[in-house]
Here is the input.
Amino acid sequence: MRILLTNDDGIRAEGIYELALALKKAGHELLIGAPAENQSCVSHGLTLRKLLYADKVTLDGLEDVPTFAISGTPADCVRLSVGNLGSKPDVIISGINHAPNLGSDAVYSGTVSAAIEGYMIGIPSIAVSKDKFDAEYMDEAAAFFTDMLPDLMRFFDDGEGMLSVNVPSTRRSEYKGVRVAGIALQTYSLTYAEELQDDGRIAYRVKSEKLTECGEDDDTDEKMMRLGFVVVTPLTYDITELKRFGKAKAMFERDFA
Here is the structure.
């Protein structure tokens, strides 16, 4: 299978490296197009007012894989790889991210946005993330995802689409199973940490202080992850609110004479 591999942690991140090794070992044809620098939490941004560069690099054990460090966002990486760098993928895979992309965190995620960009240009796409901000058991997560990929690809039999996969940060032998779940609401503190600088100015640093917790009867992606399951979530780029679409039509639609 032809695969475009990207991420948001950057071209030198352990997650994309271990996943590339596992996919290559399984016989897949790869092109890697990933950010030159860490682009975590940039969401779906595109570079419009600066030039983009794609520098060819070589990764150990992947010398025969075309690999580009791109000076842009994850969404830039997808578009440039397909549009200019020769990738003709059957699937776009974004990850493995060094942290989960559960719940509404997916809105901010560059990893997820790269997959959404792939979906938007008509290519089946999968974002894959590992629980916790570390590289522990990353090779086992990569091997599991690679083994699961044929099953994931069957989801796209009826056309393009997008999946988000979150893998526990434990040994593969400790995974409880696989669950399909919708996204949870993640609420964080609005207060930034304040740091007094040498010039007297106050700098503000975001705090990862989550305020929400999973309820006992919760069946969302975060709860399934906390129970030890691999979690699969189908996502889409359509942000239309269908619940009150009819109400909006009734309130606002009219003809002008």
Observations:
- The CA atoms of residues 202 and 249 lie 47 Å apart.
- The mean pLDDT is 95.
- The chain has one domain: 2-184+215-252.
